[in-house]
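Slack export, channel: ligand-projects

TW: morning all. Re-posting the request from yesterday since it got buried. We need the structure predicted with the small molecule present, not the apo form. The ligand is 2-acetamido-2-deoxy-beta-D-glucopyranose; the SMILES is in the block with the sequence. No rush, but it would help planning for next week.
GE: picking it up
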Amino acid sequence: MLPSSRMPKFVAFLLVVAASLDDASAVDSKYSLETKYMKVPLDHFKWYAEEKSFNLRYLVDAKHHVQGGPIFVFTGDKGDINIYAQNTGFMFDIAPMFKALLVFIEHRYYGQSLPFGNDTFSNPQNMIYLTTTQALADFAFVIDQLKREFFENVVQYDTYPIVAFGSSYGGMLAAWLRMKYPYTVLGAISSSAPMFYFPGLSSCATFYEKVTKVFERYGRDQCIKTIKLGWDVIINLTKNKLGMDFVSSNWKLCSKISTTDDVEKLLEWLSDIYVNLALSNYHYPTDFYSPLPAYPVKVFCDKLTTSYFNDTKGLIEHFGYAIEMYTNYTGRTACNDINSKYHDITEFAFGYQMCTELIMPKCSTDADMFITAPWDFDKFAKKCYKKYGTSSSRPDWGMLIYGGKNLKYFSNIVFSNGEMDPYSCCGVSANVTSSVMAFDIIDAPHHVDLRNADMSDNNYIQSARQFHILALRKWLKLE
Ligand SMILES: *[C@@H]1O[C@H](CO)[C@@H](O)[C@H](O)[C@H]1NC(C)=O
Ligand SMILES: *[C@@H]1O[C@H](CO)[C@@H](O)[C@H](O)[C@H]1NC(C)=O
Ligand SMILES: *[C@@H]1O[C@H](CO)[C@@H](O)[C@H](O)[C@H]1NC(C)=O
Ligand SMILES: *[C@@H]1O[C@H](CO)[C@@H](O)[C@H](O)[C@H]1NC(C)=O
Ligand SMILES: *[C@@H]1O[C@H](CO)[C@@H](O)[C@H](O)[C@H]1NC(C)=O
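GE: finished. pasting the full token output, ligand included:
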């Protein structure tokens, strides 16, 4: 049981659900898909006298599908499924070639697939069904229904022509679906998936080192030096009220910072901006989580370093100017809310996952551009308990159920990773067997091979997509 003082934190999330659903429906739609819902068991692994279930959303595109053609299933990531569908143009690009049906399945507890509706996050007891094992069972369950719906009389395959696609956390799920339910999909294309981002499998320092590499490559030395200097300047300046007020007004913060806790949040907010810039450093403008220009890391660094500044306040002003490129590219952001992350249900839900099954240790060292901070498991576990009432007593669980680095026992998986993707820190970057393969994409950012083809894509990105197509043809026996 949770101490009762913890309850209000959860209750606060009640209010946020509706707002977030509005945001989701506002997504620009390049591809139009049919929205469907399937009733899935709340708990796949227990039997009750009265089964509890909820509606899982999935999106379907049948424009190029012909009877008997394959089904390409996208295993939803941590967020609204439509956002992922709109940003996974590769599947739409190849659907005509394969006459495939496209199905994007939302991950439970994200987007509209909330098991307890508005109450999903209002009570810790409601969150216990948020696990990767439940999510994979959802995918298997939906796929089983799709088989019945689309392959009534198909017998020419030894199994059904269904393949899983996913990227990032969803890429881990696509691979795990093939590993845990090999009879549901013939294979999995797993892009940008940090498969080895578990305690003891990857160094805690590699994620921030990769982010720093992206800034080194696109922003050159001066940018990193300025960013590093920035931490000390901000920390020094915000030691008194005058400095806090200056930063608050110069950076257009929604509410003035006034405590050390606020300063900590401010520093974290800035760190997150650097990470998101690196994750979104595409060679063309994008609108994934927020609208951004091409090569936002370069644009940010140019703004930060091109003109001269002679004092602390000048430096803060430069940061403000550069940050605005990220937070206010459309010119429609009234103010910067450094607390937005704490009101975001997606962050809340994935935070829960990172406190339970998906513990991803992060630390920063002198080798990167972030504030030096060790990985402190006890501190992390305490924070998790405080926020979610969870115990982090089994940090090895993720490895136990998915095998850690022992991927040689599996088959038909392609892991692709962009060299300039922070998550390549912890991906599968070498071939494991002739059927568990890796494809490293030189000079490429996060998830780019699963985006739609663009004139400006480099040869490596194009080769990655060819690699995927060859794998698909092989799995589908179309060689
Ligand atoms: C959820 O909350 C919103 C806003 O308070 C309300 O409009 C909506 O009807 C609620 N939905 C349910 C299923 O209770
Ligand atoms: C921050 O303050 C410390 C101690 O007062 C000082 O040594 C350091 O030079 C300051 N750093 C910057 C970047 O102003
Ligand atoms: C720094 O530059 C600003 C103009 O950019 C100027 O007003 C100010 O006097 C300069 N400060 C110092 C200490 O040189
Ligand atoms: C965003 O841009 C608009 C238009 O230039 C400006 O009025 C507003 O203050 C900016 N907001 C932030 C947070 O930078
Ligand atoms: C894995 O093997 C394939 C086929 O031999 C090759 O094209 C690919 O580059 C290899 N991947 C890595 C990361 O070496």
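GE: first-pass observations. Confidence is low (pLDDT under 50) at residues 1-26. The two ends are 57 Å apart (CA to CA).
TW: perfect, thank you
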